[in-house]
Amino acid sequence: MSLAQRRLVSWHLYVAVGALALGASMGPLQALEHMGIDLYRYVPFLASYYQGLSLHGVLNVLVWTTFFISGFLTFVTSATLRRPLYSLRLGWLAWGLMTVGVVMAGWAMLTNQATVLFTSYPPLKGHPAYYFGLTLLVVGTWLVSANLFLTWRQWRREHPTERTPLGAFGALVTFVMWDLASVGLAVESLLMLIPMSLGTVEGTDPVLARAFFWFTGHPIVYFWLLPAYVSWYSMVPKQAGGKLFSDPLARLALLLFIPFSIPVGLHHQFTDPGIAQGWKMVHAALTFVVFFPSAMTAFTLLASLENAGRARGARGWFDWFFRLPWRDPSVAAQLFAMILFALGGISGIINASYNLNLMVHNTAWVPGHFHLTVGSGVTLTFMGISYWLIPYLTGRRLWSPKAALVQAWTWFIGMLIFGRGMHWLGLLGAPRRTMLGAATYAQLRPDWALPSVLVGVGGVILAVSLYLYLVQIVATLFFSREPAQVEVPEAEAVSGPEHAPFWFERWRLWVGAAVGLAALGYVPTLVDLLTRFTPVPGLRVW
Ligand code: HEM
Ligand SMILES: [Cu+2]
Questions:
Q1: Chunked in runs of 10, what are the mean pLDDT values of the chain (542 residues)?
Q2: Please, which residues have CB within 8 angstroms of residue 285's CB and are 6 or more apart in sequence?
Q3: What is the whole-number distance in angstroms between the Cα of residue 24 and the centre of ligand 1?
Q4: Could you identify the atom of ligand 1 that is nearest to the CA of residue 33?
Q5: Is the CB of 371 under 6 A from ligand 1?
Q6: Nearest of 55, 85, 66, 61 to residue 12 by alpha carbon
Q7: Residue 268 catalytic?
Q8: Would you say 398 and 387 are in contact if contact means Cβ atoms under 8 Å apart?
Q9: Closest residue by Cα to residue 151 from 201, 54, 81
């Protein structure tokens, strides 16, 4: 890959890691606060727990992910199609817009003018720069996807009969899904939040805004997750010394996320008034359909890893698991990510169940769940990817593979303890998004004490892991002098791409199915909410 293109990809990763550095640093503070240790008074730039929580949510879950994904999928597309990006200039334009957006939103949050938490629910009203900034971030991702689609189209013209390589295929699926899904957020931002924050309208409708938010807010989890799947399917089997079990099965699982990920967002609004119960039930049922591609993924990955373990000499039934290259930090991080993700998937089934959701809704259980999924399944995978990708891009060896291995282990152990604590606290009814240490009613709940200690202890172990990661990246960039010899891992498959039917690449079919299902799932509810539009004035409560 050309130097110019490597630089573009690298700069995506630098912004990503920068955002994680600031955003995730808030996490241990929150965890310790829940345990009764308040360190906020020592952080001069934070006016409140909630300002820190807004920074934590936005920078981790919106900025770290978006920049890492944009850089990684740009890399994957160009590397697996074996051709340069359609336009470097367009690539930098996208990066520039996204970065300007992050600076604007970041400024508003750091000056305590947008303490609205990452969901940005009205009637909470932040500074216009915050909403403009996040909108630019989304527009930037559309330009990134345009660049990848155009790159692929050039490739397709020259290779009319070949199957798209799996890596590039996964990148395209991710962005097709995301471009459709992000429309909800764009509409909410442009028609509701920005006018509210500028004061050009008297107010906005909170329930309608939430419906648009979750139209994007559920599928966004697959925008985070599919790039991790791209690595698990098309790279990890090779890194582990084996082959992908089935390329067509992997493709089908990826594709099913296009139609099935969008019409399920109302499952985040089970307790919202003003939305008909029947539609909540429809979305709950559709949510369980997403279980199928997830089960296919679990099956394919286990089969591929078993294949790798056997290629490394395993004989017994479970021997293969221990024969995997656990000493390779990139592999270990991603295997741990898969295990934590599977646990998070289990608590997700509870969230999706209409009646069980009522028990855990808005409790600490929910952040417990998504720290196992996006906070580990995705984040730890991205960390594992960066252990080979950053040496590849910069030509510098990893500063300390041993420290990287310790990093993967500590994230795994820390998250197990933290996740246990959070789920447990949630079951006991402790609310999320609450400064628990300052809540007087918490003293009436001695049963919250032990799980809170688990949260705090897990949070401290996670802090160690986070800083090991950050030190590794900085030290690799500045102190590692030895040149790196890195190959891009590209797994072969036992059953190869030639077995995949060609209609897998009829994009119109998949987009049509997604638009149709999304319309069925949403139009009645949106029409209903629009006809009962009730504006509420924006508020600043912090
Ligand atoms: C260093 C490790 C981390 C620790 C100790 C940590 C801790 C926490 C805690 C205790 C909360 C709950 C706060 C509350 O409900 O009041 C929280 C919320 C959250 N965390 Fe983390 N976290 C960490 C890393 C991450 C990562 C890597 C991500 C995502 C990539 C993430 C995303 C979130 C989000 C989206 C919220 C919800 C914010 C909200 O409710 O507005 N965290 N975190
Ligand atoms: Cu969801």
A1: 96 98 98 96 95 98 98 98 98 98 98 98 98 98 98 97 97 98 97 97 96 97 98 98 97 96 94 94 92 93 97 94 98 98 95 94 98 98 98 96 98 98 98 96 95 98 98 96 92 95 95 96 96 96 94
A2: none
A3: 7
A4: 10
A5: yes
A6: 66
A7: no
A8: yes
A9: 81
Dist. CA 56 → ligand 1 center (Å): 6
Identify the active-site residue in 251, 371, 396, 423.
371
d(CA 466, CA 478): 19
Q: How far is the CA of 366 from the centre of ligand 2 (A)?
A: 11
375 lines ligand 1 (CB under 6 A): yes
- Say if residues 261 and 216 touch (Cβ distance below 8 Å): no
Determine the Cα–Cα distance for residues 104 and 132; give it in Å rounded to an integer: 8
Task: Report yes or no: 233 and 170 within 8 Å, Cβ to Cβ.
Answer: yes
> Residue 12 catalytic?
no
Q: Is 222 a catalytic residue?
A: yes
Q: Is the CB of 17 under 6 A from ligand 1?
A: no
Whole-angstrom distance, CA of residue 59 vs CA of residue 48: 17
Residue with tokens 């209609």: 503
CA dihedral (426, 429, 435, 440) positive or negative: negative
Type and span of the H or E element at 160: none
Buried b (16+ CB within 10 A) or exposed e, 470-496: bebbeebeeebeeebebeebbbebeee
Non-local CB neighbours of 317 within 8 Å, separated by 6+ positions: none
Ligand in nearest proximity to the CA of 262: 2
C-alpha 222, offset from chain centre: 7
Q: How many Å apart are CA 63 and CA 212, to the nearest integer? A: 20
Pocket flag, ligand 1, residue 434 (CB < 6 Å): yes
Query: What is the reported pTM?
Result: 0.97
CA–CA separation, 513 vs 502, rounded Å? 17
Q: Tell me: the pLDDT tens digits for 504-528?
A: 999 999 999 999 999 999 999 999 9
CA angle 103, 188, 512 (to 5 degrees): 110
The answer to whether the CB of 415 falls within 8 A of the CB of 376 is yes
Catalytic residue among 233, 432, 469, 504: 432
